[in-house]
Write a structure and sequence with these properties.
heterodimer; A: mainly alpha; 9 helices; 2 strands; elongated; B: alpha/beta; Rossmann fold; Cytochrome-c3 Hydrogenase, Chain A, domain 2; 2 domains; five-stranded parallel beta sheet; two-stranded antiparallel ribbon
């Protein structure tokens, strides 16, 4: 067991709040979304007009979706306009060949057990940054745009329709849009599994307290070098 | 009937009063959803405009659009075909046939150059030079191109001509295409549906005749007046949807009670059409009204969004019963298995290292 030699404040409060709001809304959106696609609760008793069993699932889905969108925009705002070094995605430069060079290759090699030592990053390592970009940034953007396009279908001619209705023909039709939204939703549980596994594994292998860092904000450096 | 007769003249020649003529005009504007202030415009158009020549071509199709069209009640299709438009070429409805009929088509194309409306019913097969649909000794592909060249506008009747129907569902052996994929330089109004509602078809023609231009179209090229909202938005079973009271099988009590058909694969929530408003056969009923889920026949690619009785479509390239949920669950399962395997290797490596 290594002795803690340094404590680094990595995730400031706005990042931690974003993370947990994001995590909880994804869970809520996934559960309500899958229910909307395949409702299974027994029908209520009584006259239909007084019941709101199914419409409530949609209502919660929409409400949480707007929390999710606001949270996403807030995180983008924080990344662009704050001075928080670890929150700015500054090191993520996938358009530059250099970014795909040694650090990325070393991290991939480490995950594939091709190297003994584990590269250590205070923020996200390059593979994690790429995964976050694909699943969280691109995935969320896709879900938000397709979701708003479907939401706009409820009000033809509205502001939302003008702003996002153009997305619908890109998919062929409303049904294909629904299908794409449904299929893409599965990116999130896929990501959550990989994310949780990577976090727990890193915590065990590097002992950097990465699991608790998203609650406390602090990561640790320990005395002996991490090895696999 | 003399050429270039106006609608009012037709009424006169039949001994009908001006009062009847005005009654007809107001009924037509009501069925088009026009404001009362526009009635003089309709009257004026009917009095002064010569009947619009229409060439109606039939391609790779089942003629269900024509079958629907001839059942229009507001306005009655007889009035429309005989009086409002001059339906000069239509294989199904014309008395003439063969060379005579082809001669009429060429005559109209010459005499009314840039003025006539081309109505297309059916897909256009494009594979192997369009040999899979031959009309009068030429391929339908050539006939459409030739006739569209001098047309003022094109009306695409039905799912086939609008988006492609069963003929261009996967794997589309004849390379069948909707009109918009073949004719690029003409204004096209799409009137999808398999078939479209009769009153929607006659409504579109009346609009074109009255105002001399195509109706306002949405992003998909459909008339907004008829395809502006989803069937779901005006479905009389919507209350059961909101309440979560769903039909779970056709042999259940819930079916007899007329609950929502959402779980039976009803495509009403994703289908833009007027079935729940105008309904069919003079407003008698519509599919959901008769207890059957909407199959989404006016939506692009509706044959490939099947099966009709499930909510999620199959993904054909991954086997016939693969849905989004199965793909997702397999991917998530694979990720979990991958993580477990990776964890096992990590543990083994760590143990080896600790022993060293």
């Amino acid at each position: 067991m290594g002795r803690i030699i340094e404590e680094i404040y990595v995730w400031r409060l706005p990042v931690r709040v974003y993370h947990w709001v994001n995590a909880l809304s994804i869970v809520a959106l996934l559960v309500t979304g899958l229910y909307i696609a395949a409702p299974m609760i027994n029908p209520p008793l009584g006259e239909a007009v007084w019941q709101h069993n199914f419409v409530m699932w949609r209502y919660v889905h929409y409400c949480v979706a707007f929390v999710f969108i606001g949270n996403f925009l807030y995180r983008m705002y924080y990344a662009l306009l704050s001075d928080d070094h670890y929150a700015k995605f500054g090191g993520f430069r996938p358009w530059s060949p250099a970014w795909w060079g040694t650090p990325f290759k070393e991290q991939v090699a480490s995950y594939l057990f091709l190297r003994k030592d584990e590269p250590n990053y205070v923020g996200h390592n390059p593979v994690a940054a790429l995964a976050n970009f694909i699943f969280i940034f691109c995935g969320s953007t896709f879900m938000i745009l397709t979701g708003l396009a479907m939401y706009a279908e409820n009000r033809p001619g509205s502001f939302l329709d003008a702003a996002f209705g153009w997305i619908l023909p890109l998919f062929g039709g409303s049904y294909q849009l629904h299908y794409a939204h449904h299929l893409a939703a599965w990116l999130f549980p896929l990501y959550v599994i990989m994310h949780l596994y990577a976090v727990f594994r890193h915590d065990i292998v590097d002992r950097t307290s990465v699991t608790s860092s998203i609650i406390t904000g602090f990561k640790h450096k320990v005395e002996d070098e991490a090895t696999v | 009937m003399p050429d270039k007769q106006t609608f009012a003249e037709v009424f006169q020649s039949r001994g009908l009063s001006r009062r009847d003529f005005l009654k007809f005009c107001s009924l037509t504007s009501v069925s088009l959803g026009l404001a009362p202030s526009l009635l003089p415009k309709v009257v004026h158009a009917m009095e002064t405009k010569p009947r619009t020549p229409v060439i109606w071509l039939h391609g790779l199709e089942c003629t269900c659009c024509t079958e629907s069209f001839i059942r229009s009640s507001h306005p009655i299709v007889g009035d429309m075909v005989m009086n409002m438009i001059s339906l000069d070429y239509d294989e199904t409805l014309c008395a003439a046939a063969g060379h005579q009929l082809e001669e009429v088509r060429r005559k109209i194309m010459k005499e009314y150059k840039g003025q006539y409306i081309l109505a297309v019913e059916g897909n256009i097969p494009t594979k192997d030079d369009g040999v899979y649909c031959m009309i009068g000794g030429d391929s339908f592909l050539n006939v459409v191109k030739e006739t569209a060249a001098d047309a003022a506008a094109v009306i695409a009747w039905g799912a086939c001509a609008s988006f492609g129907c069963v003929q261009n569902a996967k794997p589309n052996p004849t390379g069948a295409k909707p009109v918009a994929d073949v004719i690029k330089d003409k204004p096209i109004v799409k009137v999808p549906g398999c078939p479209p509602i009769a009153e929607v078809m006659t409504g579109v023609i009346t609009h074109v005749h009255t105002f001399g231009k195509l109706p306002e179209l949405d992003r998909m090229g459909r008339p907004k007046a008829f395809y502006g909202t989803r069937i779901h938005d005006k479905c009389y079973r919507r209350a059961f949807y909101d309440a979560g009271m769903f039909v779970r099988g056709f042999d259940e009590e819930s079916t007899r009670k007329g609950w929502c058909l959402y779980k039976m694969g009803c495509k009403g929530p994703t289908t833009y059409n007027s079935c729940s408003k105008i309904q069919w056969n003079e407003g008698t009923s519509f599919p959901i009204g008769s207890g059957h889920p909407c199959i989404g026949c006016s939506e692009p690619g509706f044959w490939d969004n099947g099966p009709f009785y499930t909510r999620l479509a199959d993904v054909s390239f991954l086997g016939t019963d693969t849905t989004a949920d199965k793909i997702g669950m397999v991917a998530v399962g694979a990720a979990a298995a991958g993580a477990a395997a990776h964890a096992a290797v990590t543990a083994v490596k760590k143990k080896q290292h600790d022993q060293e």
